[in-house]
Structure formats: structure tokens, C-alpha cells
Design goal:
Helices cover 53% and strands 0% of the residues. Helix 7 runs antiparallel to helix 8 and helix 10 crosses helix 11. With 231 residues, the chain is mostly helical. The chain has twelve helices and no strands.
Length: 231
């Protein structure tokens, strides 16, 4: 309140210590030097990709999975896809755990082959994709792996497979679905490949609840080091 003479009362001196002035770019520098996040994956997705498939330690005779002619025994593989106890809903985590040892057996077999052996046994069965050379590149990565090559080859492989499945869809359908998950859930592919085979693909590449390898790689959610060489 003003004093009797109309003047404002004198202010008392502050007892607080003045804060030291921060350098203009110090906060930005501190942000740049801060410890980066260890992963951009959620804990559930990280577990699915990096751990679940390696929990079970068992092996299978290769003849149970792949015939001598190079044909895949889908019946044996699809037996390892897991579903809910009360309903036919796909159980992705249990399926990854169950399919992990099969993938390990296939991985070891591929590492034992030469490029010539791989071509003679499998390339004829890859012609429907219209890009067998991508699979040859992936095979070379399996034999000579390093982090960046594994991630890059998987990106190429999943995209090529998506395109090939879209071409198959168009054999009997129109207006191919834009999203991979919708393509894998389509009645057109179900009628050609059967639901069990499509469920295997959903576990590996095309569903947010599964490994979802196509999306986590292409959208940059996962680092190269987080993709196990034996995925």
C-alpha cells in the first residue's frame, strides 16, 4: 500500500542466492550426452524376438521337416503352432516357443550346405516368388552372418514374400489388401494354402502380436543387434 506521502514502501533485499546463468547450449548438450535407450521395443516384443524362441532346447530330425526333394513338410511344422485352450485363437508366445527348436534344426542344416547344394535342393521351389535370388542372398547370410546383413536380408526377404503372396491373392481375388496382416487373414490365401500354413506366417511376419519381423525392421523399431542371427 502507498505510504501517507503517496510513495511505495521500499522493497526488502532478497535473501536468495542468484542462480548461475546456464550456457546457452548446455541443456542441448546434456541431452545429446545422455545415455541412449537400450531398446525401442516394448518388453513383450523384446521377449518375443530375442528370448522366447530360444527357451526350449530340443532338436528334430531334418527329415521330419524337409523332404529329400526340398519340399517342406508343412503338416509337421503346423503341429507346433499353439492355440488357446478354450478357443481356436492363435497363441503367439507359445507358438514362438514351440517353433524355436524347429528353426534351430533348419538353421543348422542350412549352415551345413554349400551354395550349390542349396540351389539344387530348393531353388526350384522358390520360383513362384519370382525372386529366388533374394533367397540365395539370405542363404549366403546364414553361412556368413553379421548383424547388419541379417537385418537387411530379412527386410528384403519379408518384402519379397509379401509381394509374392499378393500375386497369389490376385490369382483368384481382386483388390489385394494393403496391409500384410490383412493379406495373411484373407479368405483367398486361406483357400490356397490352408489356415495352418497361414497361421505359421502370422507368427513370423504378419501380425503385431507375433514376431512381426517385417514391420519392426522396416519401421526401424529394432536395431540390427536385436535380431538374433538364428531368427
Amino acid at each position: 500500500m502507498p505510504g501517507a506521502d503517496g510513495d511505495l514502501p521500499a522493497q526488502q533485499p532478497s535473501t536468495r542466492t542468484p542462480r548461475a546463468k546456464q550456457p546457452k547450449n548446455q541443456n542441448r548438450t546434456e541431452m545429446l550426452l545422455a545415455e541412449p535407450p537400450s531398446t525401442c521395443l516394448s518388453s513383450t516384443v523384446y521377449y518375443m524376438v530375442c528370448e522366447a524362441g530360444f527357451e526350449r532346447k530340443s532338436s528334430y530330425a531334418l527329415s521330419s521337416i524337409i523332404c529329400s526333394t526340398g519340399e517342406i513338410n508343412w503338416e509337421f511344422i503346423t503341429e507346433h503352432v499353439q492355440y488357446g485352450e478354450q478357443d481356436p485363437t492363435l497363441d503367439y508366445i507359445k507358438s514362438v516357443r514351440s517353433l524355436g527348436p524347429l528353426c534351430e534344426s533348419i538353421h543348422l542344416h542350412l549352415k551345413s550346405l554349400t551354395m550349390e547344394q542349396f540351389e539344387n535342393q530348393f531353388v526350384v521351389w522358390l520360383q513362384w516368388t519370382n525372386c529366388p535370388e533374394i533367397f540365395l542372398e539370405m542363404f549366403d547370410t546364414v553361412r556368413n552372418p553379421h548383424d547388419a546383413a541379417v537385418a537387411l536380408s530379412l527386410m528384403k526377404l519379408t518384402s519379397s514374400l509379401e509381394r509374392a503372396l499378393g500375386d497369389v491373392f490376385l490369382l483368384i481375388g481382386k483388390d489385394c489388401p494393403f496391409l500384410l496382416r490383412d493379406l495373411l487373414a484373407s479368405q483367398e490365401l486361406f483357400s490356397i494354402f490352408g489356415q495352418p500354413v497361414m497361421d505359421v506366417l502370422k507368427v513370423f511376419i504378419g501380425c503385431p502380436d507375433g514376431l512381426n519381423l517385417r514391420n519392426i525392421l522396416w519401421h526401424g523399431f529394432v536395431s540390427a543387434k536385436e535380431i538374433p542371427v538364428k531368427s
